[in-house]
Amino acid sequence: MAGLTVPQPAAGATTGTHVELAGISRSFGGVRALDEVSLTIAKGSIHALVGENGAGKSTLGKVLAGVITPDRGQVLLDGEPVAFRSPREAILRGIVLIAQELSIAPALSVAENVFLGTEPRRAGFVARRALRRRYDELAAAAGFELRGDLPGRGLRTADQQKVEILRALCRNARLIVMDEPTAALGRPDAERLHQVIRRLAAGGTTIVLVSHFLRQVAELADVVTILRDGRLVRTAPAADETEETMLSSMLGRSLGATFPPRRPVPPQAPVVLEAHGLSAPGVHDVSFDVRAGEIVGLAGLVGSGRTELARALCRAERVTAGTVRTADGPLAGRGPWAALRAGLAMIPESRQEQGLMLGRPIAENVSLASLARLSDLGLVRRRAERQAVAGVLDQVGVRVPAQCPRGGVWGGRPPGLATPVSTLSGGNQQKALFARILLRGPRVLVADEPTRGVDVGAKRAIYELLTSLAAEGLGVLLISSDAEEILGLAHRVLVMRAGRIAAEFRGEAMTEAAVLAAAFGAERGA
Amino acid sequence: MDQQDLTQAKAPASRLPSLRPPATLATGLRRAGILYPFLILFIVLAVASGPFFTKVNLLDILDQQASTLIIAAAGTLVLVAGGIDLSVGAVYALAGVTAAHLALFAPPALAIVAGVAVGLGVGLVNGVIVTAFRINALIATLAMSFVVSGLASLVTGGNLVIDYSRPGFADLARTSFLTVNTSTWTMLAVVVALGVVLSRTTAGRYIYASGSNAEAARLSGVRVQRIKLITFVLSGGAAALGGVIDASRVLSAQASNGETTLTFTVLAGIVVGGTSILGGEGAMWRTVVGVLFIALVGNGFDLLGLNPLYEQIALGGILLIAVGLDAWSRLRQH
User: Fold this and answer.
1) Which of A322, A403, A436, B7 is the most core-located residue (most Cβ within 10 A)?
2) Between A348, A379, A418, which is nearest B18 by CB?
């Protein structure tokens, strides 16, 4: 409905159902991110969604805000079924998502950022005075002290967040989904944001808080919904929950994940990777080692510095202090090239953005890191390449038909080695990355989220690959957001928090509760 | 060539997965891209115009396109690696006037070598600016084209350099070998050599990888910046060789030679052929067909006596269609 809905501080505003989700399911490439989730969000409440990484809490927030369309299930807004096909449609109905990555135009002022796209206009020109006046009104109504003429560039994260909130308010948002709003904030700023959130809720705005800061949730939320593996565990009043009860509900076995047996690391196995006092952007003074045949798990929350550590180890990011040693001695030279030469290879976090050349043939993708071996005087020995690629793809379990039967126009092309790697499924793309590394034959493998976005079958195959690689004497550093996966595969677990290794567990001490507690920073004896 | 592999080959060749995807009509048409329009235009011209399908005319087209093809061949490597070189027209002019100027008093061989060396030097500067200082290639080479044009004017003092007194300088382009001019032979050599580099060598693979996904290439041990630098050096050298050949062909050169027109003709030829402006996709044969297609359009307008004013409009339209098809096929791919 058109017109400005004034936030109503009336007590009645906090009663009644705002949004009801019924049986929401959503899969990504065979992975159930949300499985039959149903919940009710009350008007003017602060409703927290909690769970481990990958539990589906962010996905649920995005479904609410129209960023993701559910495969099945229904969303009722004020009792009326809605099916948002875009964030725009959700915004028109008063639902706004504030994403984890903030989007502030650096060249525009705070006020211009707030009214971006909805500027008061006069004959096509922005009415500057009206803009400033409306900004001041809006900021006063929200109780923010943020000058509208400040440039967007160089705004502190906390202030950027305020801009996002004001932007949501000026679009008449009645429900704001905040994805990890305090993840990048220091304690005082987080406190201030809490006050803002409370005031908004008191004014009748519904807040959905996606967060993995359990303490914050306990302090702030009215209602908590706990998710695990895309399923609803329970929705309960926050007053009935404690950090411990939430944490224990987030744990638990998921279905069907079985792990190949671990082989013990021989006691005399040599150290193949050793980091000493390693510092890089997002990584502070990290020391650890990995022995031949050992799988070391690296756990931690998103943003705890796991990926940064992996990239620093493999020389993909500049190291500011400390050393990395491989079996050959200290790593010298710059760039991933130098790390690879020393036998240190990486499976990057995002296979599409950092791993694959999507438009190029499968064969080229697999042989890329091993061309020196597959060439004479710079000329690629194509026959040798084809054999090597076919062999290693077979080893990782990507089936490529030996011959290419004629594909119909509608049937698409069969997956010969020359078809673009983008035609493979997510699981097979990931296996193709493993094939690239295998062909290269490193001595240490850093695998960053190797099973992200792959189906159960491919997951199992990747687990077996990792285990057999280790059995052959490779040192493996396994990064995963899936605590269960790490506990199922690793001989030893390092937990990162805020760029440092916060805890190390081995043997009996390796439990999901201990790892999660260390990752969340809950004070517990480990 | 690699006996070791032949002996090690356990499986017969037919059992190995094919490196060539099967061609269906739809995929085949898209992959062939410019080839069919080129063949159709060729046949139409052969039927409609008597003088078109003659050895003289066809060799003349090749001879005239020699420098464009040389520059476009190296430009293909730059584009596939994810860069772009807008300074080729200026380098072409600078190398031409440098060689022509030196040829007035120095041995022709020295003039030629100096001309090409100047181009390699400019290419190196381009490459360093783009890779070491991380300045956008479009802007870096555009800026360099002004600098290089200025240098060319400095060499000539604004005049036409005429080498009619030094016929020896013409030998580079105008020596006939098996009834074909050396300029055409040189072009063939460069195109084949760079084509082999792109499609058969590890360097070629690294070029594709750098343009297709620079971060993936880097993490796989490809020194992306080094690869990009080399493509710029090659592009500068090729532009210079083109300039020197044309100066030798007409025994004169001037600072305003070609310039932007040449730069854009080269780019148009590469892109019309189907090499992506976004990097990671393309092939040498595409560039050859693309450049020759544009040349045929021009030749056709001449032979058929059409109003040349429409030629440019037609070329612009063709270019838009080519880029549009590229964008469209990428959209479908993802």
Assistant:
1) A436
2) A418
Q: Are residues A168 and A294 in the same domain?
A: no
> What is the pLDDT, as a whole number, of residue A468?
92
Q: Could you read off the pLDDT of B204-251 as tens digits, one per residue? A: 999 999 999 999 999 999 999 999 999 999 999 999 999 999 999 888
State the maximum Cα–Cα separation within chain B, in Å, rounded to a whole number: 68
Largest CA distance in chain A: 80
Q: Determine contact: A368 vs chain B, CB below 8 A.
A: yes
User: Does residue A121 belong to any structural domain of this protein?
Assistant: no
Please give the model's pTM, rounded to 2 decimal places. Answer: 0.76
Stretches in chain A below the pLDDT threshold 50:
1-14, 254-256, 402-415, 523-526
Report the distance separating Cα A298 and Cα A311, nearest Å.
Answer: 13
Q: Say which DSSP state A151 is in.
A: B
The count of structural domains within chain A is 3
Domain extent at residue A242: 11-104+155-250
- Cα gap A506→A290, rounded to integer Å: 13
Token pair of A196 as six digits? 């803002």
Residues A358 and A240 in one domain: no
Contact of B205 with chain A, judged by CB distance below 8 Å, is answered with yes
Residue ranges and CATH numbers for the domains of chain B are 51-326+329-333 (1.10.3470)
Q: Tell me the H-state helices in A234-305.
A: 243-250
Name the residue of chain B whose CA is nearest to A436's CA. B220
Token pair of B247, please? 């100066």
Question: Amino acid identity, residue A446?
Answer: V
- Residue A135 in any domain: the answer is no
Q: How far is CA B266 from the centre of its chain?
A: 6
